[in-house]
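Collaboration report, partner site 2.

Our partner group contributed sequences for two proteins of shared interest, and the home lab folded both. The records are reproduced in the order in which they were received, starting with the first partner submission.
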Amino acid sequence: MTVIDDELTEGHELGSGMVGKLQGFYVTSSEDGSSQTIAFTAMYVNAKGYATLKTIINANQQTTDGEETLLEVTVYLTY
């Protein structure tokens, strides 16, 4: 289990303004790592919008057991 507790910022740069907070968890729930669950809540300050999620796995990777997997979260907001 991996706990998620991150600030949401306006951009990638250090010092970008905080627009909210993301909290949740990620669980790999089988011995071979083939079953995953992610749940999170995004709390925004004075904003409306939606988010898209995309899992990016290395092309040479056969499973996620013991490998790194990148989760890309794109958030579209209006103030």
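Second partner submission, folded after the first:
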Amino acid sequence: MGEGEMIAEERAKDISLKELSKMLEEFAKARDWEKFHSPRNLLLAMVGEVGELSEIFQWRGEVDRGLPNWEESDKEHLGEELSDVLLYLIRLADICGIDLGDAASKKIVKNAIKYPAKIQ
């Protein structure tokens, strides 16, 4: 089974941040890219991808949830750019020794305390 087929097979199931992190590590090692994956380089690459993501929305004004008026090709492009941002974020966290899932869970708890739900 080729690399592309293995990646497609992974897509067929729910995948964890840890699994994505492992896939990214293997991808970088196979290409000898680890030497380029410093925190600074990964952050700057991610910021570049956020810029590309922003361009998709730049002249659309407000859009409805679910993007009902978008072409499928536009939604696919959006998914690709969102994925680029996510993958750089996961790789950055991994290189910095941060468990992103754990950090995000703790942040949600902190936010719940900081911004309690209104009782109705």
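Feedback sent to the partner group on the second submission included the following. Residues 63 and 70 are 9 Å apart (CA to CA). The radius of gyration is 17 Å.
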